[in-house]
Hints:
Layout: H1 3-17, H2 24-27, H3 33-45, H4 49-74, H5 77-88, H6 91-96, H7 103-122, H8 127-146, H9 153-164, H10 175-197, H11 203-214, H12 228-243, H13 254-278, H14 282-300, H15 312-333, H16 339-360, H17 362-365, H18 372-387, E1 393-398, H19 403-411, E2 415-419, E3 421-423, E4 432-434, H20 436-442, E5 446-450, H21 454-457, H22 460-466, E6 470-476, E7 483-488, E8 506-507, H23 509-515, E9 519-521, E10 526-533, E11 540-548, E12 553-555, E13 559-564, E14 569-578, E15 582-595, E16 602-616
Parallel strand pairs: 1-2, 1-5, 9-16
Antiparallel strand pairs: 3-4, 5-7, 6-7, 8-10, 10-14, 11-13, 11-15, 12-14, 15-16
Helix pairs in contact: 1-3, 4-5, 4-7, 5-15, 7-8, 8-10, 9-14, 12-13, 13-14, 13-15, 13-16, 15-16, 18-19
Amino acid sequence: xxPDEGQYHWKVNKILVNNWVPVAEVFNYNPPFLQYIExxxxxxxxxxxxxxxxxxxxxxxxxxxxxxxxxxxxxxxKTGLLAAIFLTFSSYHILYSRTIMLETPTIFFITAxxxxxxxxxxxxxxxxxxxxxxVAGAMMGLSFDAKYMAGFLVPAVPAxxxxxxxxxxKALINKKVLLIYLFAFLFVLPLLFSLFYTNVGFHxxxxxxxxxxxxxxxxxxxxxxxxxxxxxxxxxxxxxxxxSWGAVTMTSPWKDIFSISxxxxxxxxxxxxxxxxxxxxxxDSFLVISxxxxxxxLLLSAAYKHYLLYLxxxxxxxxxxxxxxxxxxxxxxxxxTNVFRILMLSLTTVVLLSYIVSGATSSYWDExxxxxxxxxxxxxxxxVIRDGxxxxxxxxxxxxxxxxxxxxxxxxxxxxSFTILKIGxxxxxxxxxxxxxxxxxxxxxxxxxxxxxxxxYFTPYVTEEIFKNYTIVFHSPTYPYGSIVFKKINKQQDGFxxxxxxxxxxxxxxxxxxxxxxxxxxxxVYTLLVEVxxxxxxxxxxxxxxxxxxxxxSVDDEWRNITLNKGSINMLKFKIAPYQEYRGKLPIxxxxxxxxxxxxxxxxxxxxxxxxxxxEK
Length: 617
């Protein structure tokens, strides 16, 4: 799972737990249109990961015929067909079309908007043009509902109309234009109502405009903060990587030819359409202005590579039309001396063949940008077996939540993980930094660090301190990113440090078992009762962890921290919601950990397990 997938998956369960009533946690940051769709899918078909991913598969697949229709309507059938083929075999688009991410449904609605908008422009008179304009407005609204990134469409329409009408502002007072924005507003209205109902307001939008783009790391991640020379180089590298995704899996010299051809085609295509844009040719101007609006949004935004996916619908239409035009010219002229046309077709042929090979085989070589966690956990699992260690191990990590945990679950490794990061010091330039004190207290057996974060967090001082107790035992070469695994020197067999005698606690097994239902239904909310008693002689802090095997159960407030005096008792309540049908003996476990106030060391001191025997839809 991608980290964002885990977040969106959590929102799906939050929607079900709250019986579809809008809550702030769901509407914060991103619009939850996709999550509401997946909540419905969960109730109908279950909440397995691959079932929810099918929503993206469907949206990604439906984008292809809409791109064909857009290209056919704007230019001709050959252009639409070639553009659809490019998108079909674009391995980067394929990757995001099989994950629970917002990009694929957003691009679908954007492409649908392009098609219906151009149909409305072709029908200058009559009700048919008005109908197309209304549908285009609905698609614009739905794209914004899917992700705020689609907001670039809002200024793109008036910019196109003003440019092609030589800045005659009267052209904006047009029934079809007004109809587009009216229907866009109507389809965004439920989102706006929910934002204010949950008191989120415009926080999510301002987060994109300001917060997300202001300070991602120690320096601003916004493209405008990068020197112009570095910006050009970095932009070229990212575009080349996206347009030639999968090239590194090919053998030389073909992978180099593929990469060079992809970036050359992009440059040539942009310059070719500038001519039509300058002379206000409507088709060329519409595509170029849309590209400009996307580019402005990317310049103002954080440098996330997958945002370049929003360029693909426009670029593939432009590239396909240029390729088809070049072929038609060569055939009509019956001359093969036109160097530009021959070069254009040669580069297109190289890229198209490479796309077909990389796209058709992507499921074999592309396991996602975080597949390095899988190989790292596999190494640790084999290393633990070699050591003959049978207990639970502890893994420290520098990565987003969910990546390592998912790999641990899929790999069947008896381990727990925790982040070794802490909030940066008050006067530090970094938002987060390595918590050496926490590493020293918890003494994890292994550390998993993704390579792209290593140079940022492992300063000379941190590196020196870590290498006092750890050594590098594994480098993950997994495409496209890797990781580094550290192993503790002379690691302890107990996995946790012992705490002072007399500090203890226990779980009321009888009460916990009575609160675990034998039969549950997908989407229903249940409450577990956990009674914890301090049987020791001193005040101590406890951590209570409720979990189940796999991802059958979503647990709200998974970790609870309580401090109990000598002999005192506390009752804890945990909300759970099943999101997948299950038949069998499913354990729900509550673990109790004690933490010494003096040393901060942890120890698992009690555990209790109840069972659910059936989960129905």
